[in-house]
UniProtKB/TrEMBL annotation:
The organism of origin for this protein: Pseudoduganella dura
Top EC class of this enzyme: transferase
Reactions the enzyme catalyzes: acetate + ATP = acetyl phosphate + ADP
Cofactor list: Mg(2+); Mn(2+)
Protein's recorded name: Acetate kinase
Any Pfam family matching the protein: Acetate_kinase
Length: 404
C-alpha cells in the first residue's frame, strides 16, 4: 500500500478507539508505515465481570485483567486503557487518538478534529444513532478529561457516503419530514473507504470501475462504488436497513412496524428490541446470530437463515448494479465475507447472470489476505479484502494532525 508521509516519525503512534455499548476495542499503529503494534478490547462494561485483553503484532498475549463484580463504565475503561498505554508505550509518542464515530449527520463529510464545541455539536446527532453515538462520545469525553493534550479525531461511518447522488439519499417523503434530516445516510463507510483505497494496489484496472462491496459481519451492508466513491448503499437512515444481519432484520416493509404497534400492541422499546436484537440470522434460525454456529448446524432453520441472507444479498446486488449501470467487480469483506467459503460460493452462483464466474479452488484457498476468487474468464471479478477500518481511522487521524 502507498504510505503517504503524514509526518509520523518511527516512534510516533496513533491510537484507534472503537467504542460500542458494552465494549471498547483499541488498536495502536506505529511509525510512517502504520505498523500494527498492539490491539485489544475491554468487554462487559456495566454488567458482570469486565474483561481486558490485548495482543501484540504477532498475536501474542500482551495483557489481561478482569474486574469481578465491579464492572467498569466507559470512563473507567478509558482511564485503565490510558494507564496501560502509558506503561506499554515507553518511548513512544502518541500523536493522535482516532475514534470510530457512527454518525456525522449531514455536515461531517470527512474526519474532524474533536474539541468541546464539535462534541457539543455531535451530541445533537444522538437521536439519529441513539444506540451507538452516546458510547462513541463517552470515550471521546473520557480522553478529553484524562489526556487533554492528545489531539482526537472523529472518523464517521457515514462520511464516505455523503457524496452519493441526491436521489440515492432520498426517501419519498414530504420535505417537511426530509428537511429534518430524515434521509438515507449509509454506514460501514470506513470499511468501504479502506477497500476503495486498496483497489489501485491489487487491481489497478478496477480503480475507475464499478464495484459492489459487501461488508458481511455481525452488522452487514453493501455499497456500490464508482471510481472509489460511494454511489449507493443498503443501509439507510439507520444501520437496521438493508441486509439481514446477526440480530437485525434488514429491509422491512414499514407497514410491518405499524402492524406490530396497532395490532400486536407493541411499544417502541419492544419493536426496537425485535428489529435490532431478535431478528436476522438469530430470529430466523432460532439458534444463533453467529454464522459459524449456523454453518455447523444440521437444523434446517439454520440453513433457512443462511439462504435468506444469500437471497437478500443477491437482490441487493442487482439493485446496486442498477445504480451503477453495470458491474465490474464484487468484493467480500467482514467476518462472514472473509471466512465463509459457502456464503461466497452461493452469492457468486446467484450472480452468474451478472457475469460472475467463481474459481472454486481459489475460493476455498482464501487465507486471510486479499485474494481474487473469480475465474480468469469471469466478466465480473470477485475479490476478498479483509476489513481494516482501524487502519483507515489511523491514517485519517495522522493525516489530520500532520496537516495542522
Ligand atoms: P463485527 O461486525 O462484530 O466486527 P465480524 O466482522 O467479526 O463482526 O464478523 C462476525 C461474523 O463472522 C460472525 O457471524 C461469525 O460467525 C462470522 N465468521 C467468523 N469466522 C467465520 C468462519 N470461519 N466461517 C464462517 N463465518 C465466520
Amino acid at each position: 500500500m502507498n504510505a503517504p508521509n503524514h509526518g509520523l516519525a518511527p516512534d510516533d503512534a496513533v491510537v484507534v478507539i472503537n467504542a460500542g455499548s458494552s465494549s471498547i476495542k483499541f488498536s495502536l499503529f506505529r511509525g510512517p508505515d502504520f505498523s500494527p503494534e498492539l490491539k485489544g478490547k475491554v468487554e462487559n462494561l456495566y454488567a458482570g465481570t469486565t474483561r481486558f485483553s490485548a495482543s501484540d503484532a504477532q498475536g501474542h498475549p500482551a495483557g489481561e485483567r478482569t474486574w469481578a463484580d465491579a464492572p467498569l463504565d466507559h470512563e473507567g475503561a478509558m482511564r485503565f486503557l490510558i494507564d496501560h498505554a502509558e506503561e506499554h508505550l515507553q518511548g513512544m509518542n502518541v500523536r493522535a487518538v482516532g475514534h470510530r464515530i457512527v454518525h456525522g449527520g449531514v455536515h461531517y463529510s470527512g474526519p474532524q478534529l474533536l474539541d468541546g464545541a464539535v462534541l457539543d455539536d455531535l451530541e445533537k446527532l444522538i437521536p439519529l444513532a441513539p444506540l451507538h453515538l452516546p458510547h462513541n462520545l463517552a470515550s471521546v469525553r473520557a480522553v478529553l478529561a484524562l489526556a487533554p493534550q492528545v489531539p482526537q479525531v472523529a472518523c464517521f461511518d457515514t462520511a464516505f457516503h455523503t457524496g452519493q447522488p441526491a436521489l440515492a439519499q432520498a426517501f419519498a417523503l414530504p420535505p417537511s419530514i426530509t428537511g429534518r434530516g430524515i434521509r438515507r445516510y449509509g454506514f460501514h463507510g470506513l470499511s468501504y473507504e479502506y477497500i476503495a483505497s486498496r483497489v489501485p494496489d491489487f487491481a489497478p484496472a478496477l480503480a475507475g470501475g464499478r464495484i459492489v462491496a459487501a461488508h458481511l459481519g455481525n452488522g452487514a451492508s453493501m455499497c456500490a462504488m464508482h471510481a472509489g466513491r460511494s454511489v449507493a448503499s443498503t443501509m439507510g437512515f439507520t444501520a437496521v436497513d438493508g441486509l439481514p444481519m446477526g440480530t437485525r432484520c434488514g429491509a422491512l416493509d414499514p407497514g410491518v412496524v405499524l402492524y406490530l404497534i396497532d395490532e400486536l400492541g407493541m411499544d417502541v422499546a419492544a419493536v426496537q428490541r425485535l428489529l435490532y436484537q431478535e431478528s436476522g440470522l438469530l430470529g430466523v434460525s432460532g439458534i444463533a446470530a453467529d454464522m459459524r454456529t449456523l454453518e455447523a448446524s444440521v437444523d434446517p432453520r439454520a440453513q433457512l437463515a443462511i439462504d435468506l441472507l444469500v437471497y437478500r444479498i443477491g437482490r441487493e446486488l442487482g439493485s446496486l448494479a442498477a445504480a451503477l449501470g453495470g458491474l465490474d467487480a464484487l468484493v467480500f469483506s467482514g467476518g462472514i465475507g472473509e471466512n465463509s467459503v459457502a456464503v461466497r460460493a452461493a452469492v457468486c452462483r446467484d450472480a452468474a447472470w451478472l457475469g460472475v464466474t467463481l474459481d472454486e479452488s481459489a475460493n476455498g484457498a482464501v487465507g486471510g489476505g486479499i485474494a481474487r476468487i473469480s475465474a480468469a474468464s469471469s466478466k465480473v471479478a470477485a475479490w476478498v479484502v479483509p476489513a481494516n477500518e482501524e487502519l483507515m481511522i489511523a491514517r485519517h487521524a495522522a493525516a489530520l494532525v500532520g496537516a495542522q
